[in-house]
Amino acid sequence: MSKQVKVKKVVLAYSGGLDTSVILPWIREHHQCEVIAMVADVGQGIGELKGIKAKAGRSGASKCVVSDLRKEFAEDFLWPMLRSGAVYEKKYMLGTSVARPLIAKEMVRVAEQEGADAVAHGATGKGNDQVRFETTVMTLNPKLQIIAPWKDPSFELTSREAAIEYAKARNIPITSTKKSIYSRDRNLWHISHEGGELESTWNEPLDRMLVMSVPPHKAPNKSTYVEIGFERGTPVSVNGKKMDAVSLIERLNVLGGKNGVGTVDLVENRLVGMKSRGVYETPGGTILAEAHNAMEAICLDRETVHYKEQVAVRYAELIYDGRWYTPLREAIDAFVTSTQQFVTGTARVKLYKGNCVAVGAKSPYSMYVEDLASFTMGAGYDPTDAIGFIRLFGLPMKVRGMVQGRRARGVKAQRSKRKR
């Protein structure tokens, strides 16, 4: 934003890292305003949150609001996404993408609560997060000004070295002056990695990069079986034990991580028009997606399954593009909710050295009927019924073969004569 933006009080989405630690005082100095730090706990772990209020205060925040959003994140964002089957470009389980609208929503709530006239974020002008933050704010409270220092021409802290010097000059606490080899984002659902050897698509990711998981080749030599219980498409238990959403995901993250499950290497197409490479660890989410697919396989009819697969692609795009708070996403959710009314039962998943495979599923609403599926002919299926069905089903193909096929054969014959 330009210097001409006049604001009195700003709510900054604050992580405590170097970028937001210097952005906070920069906003105060540049805009001559009060800055409130808003910290969203979406499951990134105690290590990132420890002492964050004191740190924000020393950076110049007039107040630091820490919001525990883990339950809301799991129940209102992760579960709908899981039920939808959304996966971006066949691999990315949208861990960072789906958290951004919730963080932005909380930023708006705090701004309204504190009487702020602006919000701010530390996303760069190159990535997807700037879009996710800003479109959410525009939707939920279009009156709020949006301050994005990385897109301000007067923002001079565009290198890590400059940011460190700026922090030192103002006695702003920073945890380290050494640049981490990876850029990471972590929450309850996943952790992402960018940078380092990943900047070349020819390089293989190194084992040292992994945080939530072990490399598959270092996983146990024995398989681990886990049973996931579902009610109306929502996970409710692990190995027969009822669990709340947050505890359930955390438990599966541990099990999946120990077995090297859920790590993907992806070159993705960013919304802003460039390709980027990242490695994502989503151990618990990978187990849940496999289990949920197994439940739908026995509980949904063919037409619904096939149509839902198409809808899942669009749902993933909406999440990735920062369009969570849109009528289309809400409408798709209504459709998905309808499809899940009989997705109740248990799926058994086998974990082994990076592999995650559903090996069993059962449900009181299963449409898999053993008597019908068996190779043995029974009273429930008369094979002679297939005669008329195939005649009608294949009639268009038969007509085409009779009319166009004959002509095609005639044209072929004429061409063959000419060649002779």
Features:
single chain, 420 residues, alpha/beta, Rossmann fold, Argininosuccinate synthetase, chain A, domain 2, five-stranded parallel sheet, 44% helix, 19% strand
How would you describe the overall organization of this protein?
By secondary structure, the chain is an alpha/beta fold. Among the domains are: about 10-70 and about 95-180, HUPs (Rossmann fold, 3-Layer(aba) Sandwich); about 185-300 and about 340-370, Argininosuccinate synthetase, chain A, domain 2. About 45% of the residues lie in helices and about 20% in strands. It contains 14 helices and 14 strands. The protein has helices at about 20-30, 45-50, 50-60, 70-85, 95-115, 130-140, 160-170, 245-260, 285-300, 300-320, 325-340, 370-375, 385-395, 395-420, and strands spanning about 10-15, 35-40, 65-70, 120, 145, 185, 190-195, 225-230, 235-240, 240, 265-270, 275-280, 345-350, 355-360. Strands 3-2-1-4-5 form a 5-stranded parallel sheet, with helices on both faces. A 5-stranded antiparallel sheet has the order 10-9-8-13-14, covered by helices on one side. Strands 6-7-12-11 form a 4-stranded antiparallel sheet, with no helix packed on it. Strand 4, helix 6 and strand 5 (about 145) form a beta-alpha-beta unit. Helix 1 packs across helix 7 and helix 10 (about 300-320) packs antiparallel against helix 11 (about 325-340). The mean pLDDT is about 90.
Question: Topology of this structure?
Answer:
Blueprint: E1 9-13, H1 18-31, E2 34-41, H2 46-49, H3 52-58, E3 63-68, H4 70-84, H5 95-114, E4 118-120, H6 129-140, E5 145-147, H7 160-169, E6 183-186, E7 191-194, E8 224-231, E9 234-238, E10 241-242, H8 245-258, E11 263-269, E12 275-281, H9 283-299, H10 302-320, H11 327-339, E13 345-352, E14 355-362, H12 370-373, H13 385-393, H14 395-419
Parallel strand pairs: 1-2, 1-4, 2-3, 4-5
Antiparallel strand pairs: 6-7, 7-12, 8-9, 8-13, 9-10, 11-12, 13-14
Helix pairs in contact: 1-7, 5-6, 8-9, 10-11
